[in-house]
Amino acid sequence: MNPEDFPRILFITPCAFNRVTGGGITFSNLFSGWPSYKLATITDDPVPVDHDVCQKYFILTSDERNYIRPLHLLKKFNSHVNFSQTYTNQKQSSPLFVCMAKSILGDAGIPDRGVLTPLLFQWLKEYKPEVIYTILGTKGYIELVDEVHRAFPVPLVIHLMDDGVTDPRKKGLFGGYLRKTYSVKLASLMRKTSLRMAICEMMAREYKERYNMDFVHFQNTIDVTRWEAYVKKEVQIAGDVRIAYIGSILPYAQMQSIIDICEVVKRMNNQGKTIFFDIYTHKDTLLMPRSSFEIHPRIKIGDAPTNDEDFFRTMANSNLLVLPVNFDKPSIQFIRLSMPTKIPAYLASGRPILAYGPPKVAQIEYARDVGWGYIVDERNLDYLERGLSELIDNCDLRYRLSLTARKAAEQNHDVRLVRKRFQKSLQELVLHE
Description:
CATH architecture of the largest domain: 3-Layer(aba) Sandwich
Strand order of the largest sheet: 3-2-1-6-7-8-9
CATH topology of the largest domain: Rossmann fold
Shape: globular
Distance between the termini: 19 Å
Radius of gyration: 22 Å
CATH superfamily of the largest domain: Glycogen Phosphorylase B
Strand content: 15-25%
Number of strands: 15
Number of domains: 3
Largest sheet: 7 strands, parallel
């Protein structure tokens, strides 16, 4: 396709292009091949941005994303943005008044606001966006998107990733205010959209009922052909068992269920079995001490793979993969309609998958509907142990799960199909203008 047929996309996002975070990987895969000079990004992502897909960035400052006076004096206590700090270090090093402020503000933090400054306006005027694409974020991001769209009334695309972001049920002094304000501003902005995207089919269905608008769904993709050489179609287990988890360990998503798996692996090892559980994560974002997970010598936390080759090699070296989801209500509310970035790679790897999480959560129901995972959907260590034992002992079961997962990756997530549909949907917005 001629590069001139691609519209100039303006991406407004708290999570930009990178090869580190789930969102960054997803966007890089979906937009790969788009002419780089026709992509521009507005962000304040703390993760270093990647220039392979997009080369033009405007990094937000306190001028464009700030706090209402005198609330700006409290921004240092804003716990909403402190997930990257170690929990134990915060508790030990914070003075009493800081701890009290964080306790009062809670995870809602303080309200931010977005401002279209003259500097940003001039930057946008020179770029001349033809489509605005956003995943929203905080209240300030919604306000910034709205101001930019008012100044440049081009087609607006909203891609929703987490219900916890769309409907923030935060606790703290400003929790109720933020939820109400966010809801009103989001509904107003939604009415201005030309195209609405969800991260998965379950989210698209629910949001159609919630907002009375149609949604299409796009999530991360996988180049099935490229990684075929890393796929282990043999599911025999000869000797020791190696289980792997690769991804984030977040208190509001999967941390407690990973601890449950650690407890069961410890129990099974104490019964005389030889089972290794390898946890690969970004250790600088670990909010609990390693000792909470490494409760047996055969359970280890390692660094998350930093490139695709190592990611697939790590999966290929395991016998089983686990997909954990917390069972507590706040976690379910946050993650219920989300779909982890790693799922297409998990499926393409050919490794049998144990999905441990509550029912009516999108990733668990996806595994159930398609049949690519062994599901334990009740928080019960005996049930979890029984599920792991059956996967370890039943070769036919592992083979069926592996085959089904690889077919799902080809049919639902192959980059040649998904990326083409995604990019075509953006191109058509301008063609139909």
